């Protein structure tokens, strides 16, 4: 009997998942315990194990596509079993939670209708959803062109989101009959991307009338003229040159200034210092390709410009689409900033003893701790004495946590993640150092699991290694506080009535006034000061 596999919920806040890779294909045998697919959220990719045995009969979400939790992911059953009764007309399982009406127009990846009949053997390929909040994608490069033969598993195109560029694999075989988006063009998720089918099939009616279920307008067919297509996503405009370029070179440039060039040709041009505005493209639609760069001869200045000053400067900018991680960060921090009444307590600690302590500690073979490890440990011990700072706010109650899980903010190329050091007060300094190092490495490689980013009761954000003396942070809810740690600075200080050279570090504690009164926050910092300025007490 066929079993329906739905999109799993990989964390308590997950609403959608993206299929990064299918490790099984339709027709493959599946054993209990086999890895069916890798499921990606905006922060981690996890293997999804099958709990059923049989044959993979249907895939509901293609690689790179996203769907809601509990939506149809796959069907496993007996070989040759008819599963049509399990599928509705839109390809969704009847038990799938219904999305709000205003969202169904864009969220229903698999559901699609057309105004005309689709010829037999023809498959409409739509823009995949590559992350849980992605709304549109851009075709970076087509690896297949109209008329090319496509085999199942061939890479059709490289699809660019504001987060990454991913190869988009075909799950059908046939001929590429129609391309709905040219290179550089953007479209909403589920918009027409391509049509594959038997060679010679007329799909003009399908292309011109294709609609996403519930959508209010048709997807327009790609321009047929030879001029480069309009790019909907603004990109940087190449700098002007003080020489006359060949008129033919303008064929490679769209009206918004984007130069159509293959990634390899662009790379070679950058290495050789060649201005792409001067290069005439010989590829499709005037696209600059490798041989154009290799055969390029620099244009000399015209007689009209010789001896004259021609300014080469030009106002220039680049609009970079917001990544899914950046959107998630913006949403969370905006919610925190405007719901939690923040206030800030600023202190400056004497670091002379801490510097000496760390030097002695690191003299032990195979031992290396950082100042950040010392701060995390000190915070953990201080939080045990001040549970009010280790609290969380709810509409009907305040939770005082007896355990201490400290989130450590880690910068990654496209934003910020906060892995969690669990039970930090019970760990030694070397254990904390090893945990932070491992978690930071996973964060930068996008290998953190949801469990490793959940459950923090307090957060530490350290920018001291970047030379920042002092700063404030936004509370990482549901925490009630976050500590901002600055750089250790050598400066004149007063000790015993004398001005001497000292080392100090500034810290700023952001508190939620709903849970932490000013005096409570100040008392916590006094306790923290005792540990930081006399770190040997952390070993007692």
From TrEMBL:
CDD domains: lipoyl_domain. It catalyses: N(6)-[(R)-dihydrolipoyl]-L-lysyl-[protein] + acetyl-CoA = N(6)-[(R)-S(8)-acetyldihydrolipoyl]-L-lysyl-[protein] + CoA. One of its GO terms (molecular function) is dihydrolipoyllysine-residue acetyltransferase activity. Transmembrane segments: none annotated. Its EC number is 2.3.1.12. The keyword Acyltransferase applies. PROSITE patterns: BIOTINYL_LIPOYL, LIPOYL, PSBD. GO terms for cellular component: pyruvate dehydrogenase complex. Pfam families: 2-oxoacid_dh, Biotin_lipoyl, E3_binding. Residues 91-111 are annotated as: Disordered. Its cofactor is (R)-lipoate. Residues 260-297 form the Peripheral subunit-binding (PSBD) domain. Keywords: Acyltransferase, Lipoyl, Pyruvate, Transferase. It is an enzyme of class 2 (transferase). Residues 2-77, 122-197 form the Lipoyl-binding domain. The keyword Lyase does not apply. Binds 2 lipoyl cofactors covalently. One of its GO terms (biological process) is pyruvate decarboxylation to acetyl-CoA. PANTHER family: DIHYDROLIPOAMIDE ACETYL/SUCCINYL-TRANSFERASE-RELATED, DIHYDROLIPOYLLYSINE-RESIDUE ACETYLTRANSFERASE COMPONENT OF PYRUVATE DEHYDROGENASE COMPLEX, MITOCHONDRIAL-RELATED. Belongs to the 2-oxoacid dehydrogenase family. Forms a 24-polypeptide structural core with octahedral symmetry. The pyruvate dehydrogenase complex catalyzes the overall conversion of pyruvate to acetyl-CoA and CO(2). It contains multiple copies of three enzymatic components: pyruvate dehydrogenase (E1), dihydrolipoamide acetyltransferase (E2) and lipoamide dehydrogenase (E3). This is Acetyltransferase component of pyruvate dehydrogenase complex. It comes from Snuella sedimenti.
